[in-house]
What does this fold into?
Amino acid sequence: MKKHLKPTATRRDFIATGAAVLGFNIIPRHVLGAPGVPAPSEKLNIGCVGIGGQGGGVTRDLASFANVHIAALCDVEQKHEATMAKAYPGRPFYKDYREMLATEKGIDAVMVGTPDHWHAPISLAAMRLGKHVYCEKPLAHSIEETRIMARVAAETKVVTQMGNTGHASEGLRLTKEWIDAGAIGAVKEVHVWSDRPGKFWDSQGLPRPTEKIAVPSTLDWDRWQGAAPAHDYHPLYVPRKWRGWFDYGCGALGDMMVHNADPAWYALDLGAPTSVEAQTSETNADSFPLWSIVTWHFAAKGSRGPIKLTWYDGGKLPAPPPGFDPARKIGDNGILFLGESGSIIAPGWCGTPRIVPESQMQSFARPPHSIARSPGHREEWVAACLAGKPEDAKANFAYAAPYTEALLTGVLPIRLGKRIEWDSAAMKATNAPEADALIRKTYRKGYELPV
It folds into this structure.
């Protein structure tokens, strides 16, 4: 979900003016091409990997930009080839991203829209070849992967962006500006929630299926699994349901907390937690529980005090804040900041904030904007790629990696059933040596991480 500062502005408007606003130095199109049509040197050639679900939507969105050319497509599900051939005639289609990268030398950037366990291998391979990367959220499948991705992005100086689209929103910026202005006093607690998994996938809380089912003829199941442990195919894994399985996804936390908690990391500069604990429904060794309530503890930092942040999924919700108007709904995705003198509540995906109680909202004198606005999450990435300015993509891996790492520490108490004391500098759970196997993954032969 993208929010634009000026809803009436079109992408064509941004292509003509947005680069200048952000300080980019792109040669004007009237010098290199016909008016209204970007010259070839202004087009970003993108290879898209994982084009079925979310990745297909991102591909369609990028294809609508006048300064983007979808140059190649890749997916292990062959049935997508016919669909994409109609939408993008003449583009080559690959089943293996490695073959795409080796063959398509003219690709400038790669969009990664695969399941979580493939994010790091594909992104790292692309960055090592000097390709810019747009990677869907969550950035990685393990804590170690987040650190490697941040390091390689810094080393290669390519432009990167994680697909938490709300990071470009007006709501994210308003939330930080209001908190910085003291709208609710010092923040003590944050509560974040989502209605997922619920109706979106039903594979959580289940042991691994044992029945033998034939692999669809169009699906390369071995490549789909990649570095994950090899298992027999089952429709409980694909499509979408993979999120609930430890080997492939990061559960509702990886799907929605990465969106809904972003205002807290951005506004409060939370950094790494000191400890994490969880309550859950019944657990098993294969899939995420039906619901979880996870609490992170963050030490005081700079001018702010310690913060406790709690995440709720599977239908669990926090209590409404004091003074909350019962006529308003808390919503099925959202974030709540509890301060010394009031609260801020906002819908999911970094939606527009509101102060509670309502009387305080009505009397609040809004501060002037102090944060630069974005033309759109994917728009700013494309413009940053064309300008060669990694810092202009605001959810770049330098931001997204430590943020994702902090979220993924929440998986540890869910899987291990105990409170985790976290040493970020050492990348260790100091009270749980058994967590090492979760912090650093083992990769199947032939699918090792290209570090």
Notes: The first strand starts at residue 44 and ends at 49.
